[in-house]
């Protein structure tokens, strides 16, 4: 059974950092592309970043480029999203996606 579990969200002040984790089970993690999405209140879900399973090639949305870093540890079946210099507009539920499967998300709130 494919399962994705996000963790690491929370409340952070503007300019702060958080690291999200996505722990996978039920499939061979190292064989698949990992994507992080987010959905802010009243907005559509948007792709934030992705990382390939071969060579770990990364792609970022313009809105997070230079601030967020996506990575993966295939030995731990876990992907990460390091978020730095957070802004209030980064407030959203963050989801990981692999094999067109979704986790339940983790809430990130950026507020003073």
Structural account:
The chain has no helices and eleven strands. With 112 residues, it is mostly beta strands. The strands form two sheets. Strands 2, 4, 5, 6, 9, 10 and 11 form a seven-stranded mixed sheet that branches. A hairpin with a 6-residue loop joins strand 5 and strand 6 (58-60). The chain starts with a strand and ends with a strand. The relative contact order is 0.33.
Q: What attributes characterize this protein structure?
A:
single chain, 112 residues, mainly beta, four-stranded antiparallel β-sheet
Briefly say what this structure is.
The chain has 112 residues and is mainly β. The protein has strands spanning 3-7, 10-12, 18-25, 34-39, 46-51, 58-60, 68-73, 78-83, 92-98, 101-102, 106-110.
Percent range of helical residues: under 10%
Distance between the termini: 40 Å
Q: Uncertain regions: pLDDT < 50 for 5+ in a row? A: none
Largest sheet: 7 strands, mixed
Write the layout of secondary structure elements.
Layout: E1 3-7, E2 10-12, E3 18-25, E4 34-39, E5 46-51, E6 58-60, E7 68-73, E8 78-83, E9 92-98, E10 101-102, E11 106-110
Parallel strand pairs: 2-11
Antiparallel strand pairs: 1-3, 3-8, 4-5, 4-9, 5-6, 7-8, 9-10, 9-11
